Amino acid sequence: MRHKDDNKNEAITQATIELLNEVGFSEISMSKIAKRAKVSAATIYVYFENKEDMLGKMYLNVKEKLSQRMSHGINESTPVKLAFELIMRNLMAFNLDNKAYFMFLEQFSTSPLIDKLQLGGSVSLFNPLFELVEKGRTEKILKPVNTLFILSFCYFPITQLAKACINGQLEINEKYLNEVIQMSWDAVKA
């Protein structure tokens, strides 16, 4: 039995994400990934059962990194408005610091694979955000609407701003970020 090597696993992950961002899901193959990662195709199967297993595990891994970053600096005593702002700032930082991950998540979220692989369970990674919204509704700081509606106003404006920055349509600055955060806050506050 071959032993797993963290460096090879990371090389496979990085190669896969790079290739997906370059050629998309339909054009990716295990042989292309192996070549980019500088490992044999057989090595990939030491780490993953098949391509779908590999993609699903990578998606969950990146989502976990995203959820940790979004929640960074927030605890039970953080005021709701400040936590809301931190979530958005953390999300923007994650997207801009990890462009390949961001592009991978964007591609994956619109792919039929997300349903096929039944990866909806990744929502539990974001429980601290759900708890924050519940706290905000209980304290009558946030509108008494569906939690996903409120979180959408945190997530989607920032992802659209990050896309514009990555595509060279806009240069992010503190003024723009503050404006988006304020507009989002105005939309969800009670």
Structural features, described:
InterPro entries: DNA-bd_HTH_TetR-type_CS, Homeodomain-like_sf, HTH-type_Tx_Regulator, HTH_TetR, TetR-like_HI_0893_C. Keywords: DNA-binding. Residues 29-48 bind DNA. This protein is an all-alpha fold and 190 residues long. It folds into 2 domains: 1-47, Homeodomain-like (Arc Repressor Mutant, subunit A); 52-188, Tetracycline Repressor, domain 2, CATH 1.10.357. It has helices at residues 6-23, 30-37, 41-47, 51-71, 80-97, 99-109, 113-116, 127-138, 147-166, 174-188. Helix 1 packs across helix 6 (99-109) and helix 5 (80-97) packs antiparallel against helix 8. The longest helix is centred in the N-terminal third of the chain and has 21 residues, at 51-71. The radius of gyration is 19 Å and the shape is elongated. The mean pLDDT is 90.
Termini Cα gap: 59 Å
Percent of residues in beta strands? under 5%
Largest sheet: none
Assign the CATH superfamily of the largest domain.
Answer: Tetracycline Repressor, domain 2
CATH topology category name of the largest domain? Tetracycline Repressor, domain 2
Separate helix tally? 10
The string of secondary-structure elements, in order, is: HHHHHHHHHH
The CATH architecture of the largest domain is: Orthogonal Bundle
Instruction: Please tell me the total number of domains.
Output: 2
Structural class: mainly alpha
**Stretches with pLDDT under 50, minimum 5 residues:** none
Quick one: CATH class of the largest domain? Mainly Alpha
Give the helix proportion (percent range): over 70%
The overall average pLDDT, rounded, is 90
Shape: elongated
Cα gyration radius (Å):
19 Å
Quantity of strands, as a count: 0
